[in-house]
Here is the input.
Amino acid sequence: MNSDVDKRTVKAIGEAALPLHGIADDYDTIVEAARGKTFVMIGEASHGTREFYRIRAEITRRLIEEAGFAAVAVEADWPDAFAINRYVWNLSNGGTAEDALAAFQRFPLWMWANTEVRDFIRWLADFNHETRGSKQGSRPVGFYGIDLYSLANSAHAVIDYLERHDPSAAKRARQRYACLDNFLEEPHRYGQSVEFGLTSSCEQAIIEQLLDLQHEILPRLSASDALSEEQHFFIEQNAKVVLNAEEYYRLMFSGRVSSWNLRDGHMFETLEALQSHLRHQSGKPEGIVVWAHNSHIGNAADTDMGRRGEFNIGQLAREKYPESSLLIGFTTATGEVTAATNWDEPGQRKRVRSPLDGSYEALFQSVQHERFLLDLRQRNAATELLDEPRLHRAIGVIYRPETERQSHYFYSRLPRQYDMVLHLDETHALEPLANAPAPEREPPETYPSGL
Here is the structure.
C-alpha cells in the first residue's frame, strides 16, 4: 500500500464487501435491487473474460425467473442478435445455438460466438419453451442487439423484407440505398469519401426510407399477432440503424467525441424503442437486462470520458430514469483475457498484467476476499474513501499491455460510476466456439529478446 489512506480504504472495503462463494445466493442483493427497475445494466471490464460473461448470465437468469424481466439487450449488431432472438423464441426450425451464433461474422467473433453465450441462449430457449410457451398469450423473453455497425446487413434486411411483402416498396428502398452500394463492405470508406467531397451524403434518401416505412409501408401491412409485431419492430429498427450508421461513419472523420456520443445515443434510443415495444405487447412496463462494456454502462459523467464531453448509456439512463436504472460494473486484477493486438486481427489468449498502483483494481486486490460484491449505494467508510478520482482499467477487444497506462486506464469516481461492483482477483480467457477461430497463445513476455 502506498499510504495510510489506502490501508484504511482496503480495511473499509473488506468490512463492507459481500464475499462471493460461487453459489446462486451470491447475487441476492442485485436481484432485490433490480425488482421494479426498467434497465439493469451489467458491465464487463473486458470483452474477453469468461467469468464476466458467466456471472452476468447467472444474474440474468435470476432476473428473468424471479423478477420477470422480459428482454436481454446486448452490445451487438441488431440483425445479428435477431438471429439469436429467433432461436430463443424457438422459431429457428430445429437450428442449434451454434447455428444462431453463426450470424456473427464481423470482428471480434469471440465477443458473442463463445461458449458462455451459447450456454445462456440454450437455457433461454428452454425457458421460453417450458415456461412462456405454456401460458396462453405469454410473450417469450427476447434477445436484442443495440449497436449500429451493421450498415450493410441492416440495409439488406429492409430490402429483403420488402421483397417478400411489398415489391414496389422494395424497389424504392433499393433506389434510396443505392448511394451506399460501393461502400457496404467497407463503410468507413463512405465517411472518408463524403468528408473529402468525393461522393454525396446519402442522409436525405435514408431519412425518406425510414419515414416511408414508419408512415406508409408498415401501417399497410397487418401485424395481427406478437410474431408479426416483432418482425415489424425488427425491420423498423434496421432502417434506424442504417440512418444512424450512415451518420456515424461520416462523423468518424470529424472527431472521436461526436462519433462516440452518436453510437451511445443510438444504443440508448434502441433501448427506449425496445421498452416501448415491450410495453405495447404486454400492456405493462417490462424490465430489460443490458449487457455491455463498463465504459458504456458505468455513468460517464464522473470519469475522464465525461470531462472530454462524452456520454454513455449508463449516464443517459441515470439522468432520464434515476429511479428505474441499476448500473453494475466488474473489475479484475490478474489472469488471462481473449483479445487482439490490433483491430481485425485474430484473438490471442493474453496475460492480464497486475494492476497499477493507485488504481481501484490494486486496492481491491489487497482486500481479504478474492471475490466480492460491493454495494456502492451505501454510505459508509468504504464508499466515502473510494469517492475520489482513481485509475480504473478498461480492456476492450484490443489489449496492449506494453502501453497499458495510456491504452487501458482512465480516472473515475467509482461510487458515482456504478451502483454496485463485482470484483474477481483472478479471471480466465473467454472460450470462442469450436467453429470460430481459436485464440492464439501470446508469445512469452520476454519474446523476442529472450531476457
Summary: The chain has two domains: 4-143+257-279+287-430, 148-256+280-286. The CA atoms of residues 257 and 309 lie 7 Å apart. Residues 442-451 have pLDDT under 50 and may be disordered. Residues 4-143+257-279+287-430 form a domain with the EreA/ChaN-like  fold fold (CATH 3.40.1660.10).
